[in-house]
Amino acid sequence: MTLPPPAHSAPLPPARTTADGVRVLAGVPYAALPGARPLELDLYLPSGPGPAPVVVFLHGGGWRLGSRHSAGPQFTGSAPFEQLAQAGIAVAALDYRLSGEAVWPAQLHDAKAAVRWLRSRAEELGVDPDRVAAWGESAGGHLAALLGLTGPDLDGDVGVTGPASTVCAVVAWYPPTDLATVPADPTDVATREAQLLGAAPADVPELAAQASPVTHAGPAAPPFLLLHGDADRMVGHRQSELLHAALTAAGTPVELVTLPGADHMWLGSPDAAATALTRTTAFLTRHLLGDHR
């Protein structure tokens, strides 16, 4: 009997093309784990000759809900991903295991597996393996930051192994960056952070530190763009301030954009959402396209 190929080497699905010329490959498996739902991503590819740079997008939802299909409630479906593709940057929006499916560091292992998969299939996909960035919102911003800050010791063995899981630029919208200080009560086992870690942050301080981007700030980090509303009631603006300070101290190029009056997920602030996407596009264009335009 002939066994099917591993998920990460399965044939690509047929692409559909939007009215604006963006090619979309939906539901592409990048890894599979026994007893778990398939790990899939949607790929938005620019028209024209490649290879194109690519940004990995990681959704929010407190690590316990959410999906690859949205960049947040202020945006219509995949519109932000298609907008970036129209600007010449491919987007790989991915699902990862949620905290109810697996605890830390499974989420980061999945994100790193997606980066490796992109590099392993780069020629076939028409993307540039040397120009891979990360972008995420909320919990996804936390994971995007960790993609930029952690090394092989947190790679895991999900999916294809071999290619690097590094990224050359990071955008994080309102990310949790120090898990011991996000919850009002770090001993509460019902918080999002406790569900991610499998225990209250106060009970597993070393694990909470390992899962915190501020712990990993260092001189080898790529450029960062942090965007955060100063009225965020879920993940306080202080979280981006902490990472900004840590990266600055390490000598990493980092910019913190504070959006006045904006709440978490830019709720009630469509102008803030539009500004965030504009600043994100400009940052990624600068670092991924640069002299390639």
TrEMBL record:
<dbReference type="Pfam" id="PF20434">
    <property type="entry name" value="BD-FAE"/>
</dbReference>
<protein>
    <submittedName>
        <fullName>Unannotated protein</fullName>
    </submittedName>
</protein>
<keyword id="KW-0378">Hydrolase</keyword>
<dbReference type="InterPro" id="IPR049492">
    <property type="entry name" value="BD-FAE-like_dom"/>
</dbReference>
<dbReference type="InterPro" id="IPR050300">
    <property type="entry name" value="GDXG_lipolytic_enzyme"/>
</dbReference>
<dbReference type="InterPro" id="IPR029058">
    <property type="entry name" value="AB_hydrolase_fold"/>
</dbReference>
<dbReference type="GO" id="GO:0016787">
    <property type="term" value="F:hydrolase activity"/>
</dbReference>
<feature type="domain" description="BD-FAE-like">
    <location>
        <begin position="41"/>
        <end position="247"/>
    </location>
</feature>
